[in-house]
Every structure is written in C-alpha cells, then in structure tokens.
Hints:
By secondary structure, the protein is an alpha/beta fold. The chain is 28% helix and 13% strand. Among the domains are: 124-172; 178-299, Nucleotidyltransferase, domain 5 (2-Layer Sandwich), CATH 3.30.420.
Amino acid sequence: MRKERSSKRQAVPFSKGEKKANPKKPGWKPGEGKFSRRDLPTEEEITHRVQVPLQGDRCPFCGSSNLGEVRIERAFCTDISESPKPQVTAYSLEVRKCLNCGRTLRGQHPQVDPSQHGATAHRVGNGVFTRPHALHYGIGVPMRKVPTILRELCGVPITQSTIQRDAMRHNQAEVGEEYQQLRASVKDAKRVFADDTGWRINGESAYMMGFDTDEASVYQIRLRHRHQGVRELIPSDYGGVMHTDRALTCTTPGLWNWWPNKSAVTTSSARSTRCSKIKPGWPVPSGRRSKHRSKMASRCGGAIIPGK
Length: 308
C-alpha cells in the first residue's frame, strides 16, 4: 500500500508510519562541529554607523532624573540591500585625429579594451563573471538558473551564453594552461585511480574518464571508450600502480602488450576480479567479455591482479 502511495506525486509526503518512541533531538550532536556564537565584525567590515541616544532624561519606570554615567553598548546587524544597485563606471576617453596620417588616436585605460567602442561600448567587468562561475562550477547551481540568481541578488542582467563564452575564453587561457599541467602530473604519481562514466555532448553519447592521484583529479571527455584514452595520461614508462574497475578498457590486449609493468594494474570491482582471475584451461561462461578476459589472463600468466 505504501509503495502505491509513494508513486503519486504531491507537495506533502505521505506518512511512513508511527513516530519513534525516543526520537533524537534536532541539531548538531556533540563532536560534529564547532559551536560558537556569531563573531563580531571588525572595524573594516562596518559600512554604516548609527548613533542611538537615550530617549528622555528621566527613568521611564520611576520617573527619577538621577541617572548614572553614559556608557556605549554596541549591537550589529548584517543585512543585504533590498534593491541591489550595480556599480557602473563611465570612462571619458580622449579621442583625437592625426592631421599628418589621418589615423584616430584614443586614450587607453587598463579597464577599457581597445575594441570597446560603438555597439560594444557597454560591457560587464570581471567581477560580474566571477560570481556566476562560482555558483555553477563551485557550488553546482545549474547554468540555466545562474542568470536569474545574478539578476535578483546583484541587479546585473546577463545571459547564459555570455557566461559560457567567458568560461571558454578562460579555458583557452590560464585555466587551460593549468589543466595541461595537471594532465602532465598524472604520469609522475605513485598511484592512479582510473574510472569512467557516461556523458553527453549535444545530446550524443560520450564518456568522461577520471584519473585521481594523491595530488589532483583530472577528467577528460571522449566520444569513444577505448584504451587510447588511458594512454593519453599514462605513458609506456609509467612505473606506478594503476587502480581501476574496468579491466576490459584499461587492460585490453593492445594496452596490455604495450604496458611494460604488468603488475601495475589492479581491479577493485568484484565482477572484474572474478573474471580477471581466470586461469588458462579453466571453463569460462560464454560471452564476448568472458572470452576476452580469459584470453587476456592467458597472456598475463593466468592473473591480472598482482598478489602483492
């Protein structure tokens, strides 16, 4: 009965049964985190100051005018502006024409691109792109929702395509250089954990491969799931240990013959372990993968997983 009710969608969930006799108290439990009050702001963080005098010179309870010395008690309130107003800077660039060669001379400023004129005279600064990139790539907010959040919280209208084009520009510049350095560092790691999952490129099926080391995690997307993708980051002279649960891809005969250190591949999946430990002469189940792994085990001396 509960299974039938849970299949129906509604705002309020159905009851799952009776309440527990001794439920746990809400909130953090001892040892789960740091418990403290909100820290007071520093003098540099304070943006507005309000003086609040005492109302009247008499005590409102007894009416006496005999009051003690004045002391100041401070209270703070951190809030967000109800109507965010972005900072708009207007640059007045001096433009003159050379009477000798006829070319136009224009004043230069670090914040103004030389091509920023005419229809593209109004652009957004780097601070506008920092926040949407942090929301999408740092927190995981879907890209289609980022423009709405930015408009509501910062008051800056921006489209999804503009954010994506800026991310692609950084990907070809400093971000791309850092990514290439991370890819090059994989071959120097003592151990590499390789795994993959399905992906989509313009609605077409693809594969995202992940290489995790003790220092970094590197991902690459390829249209086909082949051992050539592994060889892009793991060279032939790699002397470390590679952990994977996909023996069919990472230990395919083409890759296995190429790999000099055959004891540097381990598998963590129970299914891969069972198929990889097949020894020559053992009866194996029918199927392409089982025959493939049996042949692979024969080439590797009967076992892919090292006994070390």
